[in-house]
Every structure is written in C-alpha cells, then in structure tokens.
Design a protein that fits this description.
Layout (H helix, E strand, L loop, with lengths): L1 H4 L44 E8 L12 E5 L7 E2 L1 E3 L4 E10 L2 E9 L2 E3 L7 E2 L4 H6 L1 E3 L2 E9 L3
Antiparallel strand pairs: 1-5, 2-3, 2-6, 4-5, 6-7, 6-10, 8-10, 9-10
C-alpha cells in the first residue's frame, strides 16, 4: 500500500520496489556503502614526526671580539652549515631550523668563524661518529665531542 503513494516528496513509486538513487544532472550516481568486510583495506599513512627548533648563541662572558659568522651544522642539516642571524639589539645570534626528524637523538656543532664553540643550550655531548662529525668536534678533557639534541615529539 505504501508503494502506491510514493515517498513523502510525492515521487511516483519505483516499479521494481528497489530504492531509487536520485543524482543531479551530469553527476555520477552515488554507490551504496559497502559492507565493512567488502571495503578495500587502506594502508596506514606513515607520517614522519618533525619539529622546529630555535638555536641561539651569545659571546662567552669576557669575550669582546664578535665573530664575522656563526653557523650550525648537524645531522638534521646533513652536516651542511646553516648561518645564524646576528641580532644586535639582543646581543646574540639565532637560527630557526624546521623539519627536524623527531624521536631520535641528533648531533650538531655551533661554529664561530668556522671554529667549534660551546653551546650552553645543548642536551649533552657525544663522541663523534664518522668523519663528518669528527671535522666539527670540539676538544674536551675527555676527547673530541659534539653536541646532542634529543628530538622528542608527541
């Protein structure tokens, strides 16, 4: 009896008794949703967790001679030197490094006029591994070292 009256929008009933899918002119008809067991399995997209870090450096106390350049090089730059910007108002240098891979420990060095300098903000020091790290290492009482950055992301 309900088929004789059509739906609430007064459309004529479909003769086969099956549901009719209406689509706008020129649009492809929508497909009915598949049962979850029939849907193709999508592989999870593996996103690399990254973060941004601001590196800062100031002249050590008592040192008056400012270097011409201050750079950073590390595993997150492929050991390519990245210049820090000199901020004369704040009296230091800084650089923002983006897309640092997270959930690992990185090694790096700060260089003033091409020579390794101390970083007061490092997460620690590590024994250099490989020739690239050896060339940037700083001399310490315990031997050559590079700085560490613990890159943790949530």
């Amino acid at each position: 009896m309900a088929q004789n009256f059509g739906n609430a929008f007064l459309q004529p009933p479909h003769k086969s008794g099956a549901a009719v899918l209406k689509t706008p002119a020129g649009a492809a008809p929508k497909r009915p949703a598949q049962h979850p067991a029939q849907q193709p399995v999508q592989q999870p997209v593996e996103r690399k967790l990254t973060f941004t870090k601001i590196f800062r450096w100031r002249l050590p106390d008592g040192q008056k001679q400012e270097p011409a350049t201050v750079e950073i090089a590390g595993t997150f730059t492929g050991w390519k030197k990245v210049p820090l910007i000199h901020d004369r108002v704040m009296g230091g240098w800084h650089a923002t490094v983006q897309q640092i891979q997270g959930n690992r420990t990185h090694h790096y060095m700060l260089l003033a006029d091409g020579k390794p300098v101390e970083d007061q903000h490092s997460d620690g020091m590590a024994v250099p591994s490989g020739a690239q790290e050896q060339q940037f290492a700083i001399a310490t009482a315990r031997g050559p070292r590079v700085f560490m950055l613990f890159a943790q992301t949530k």
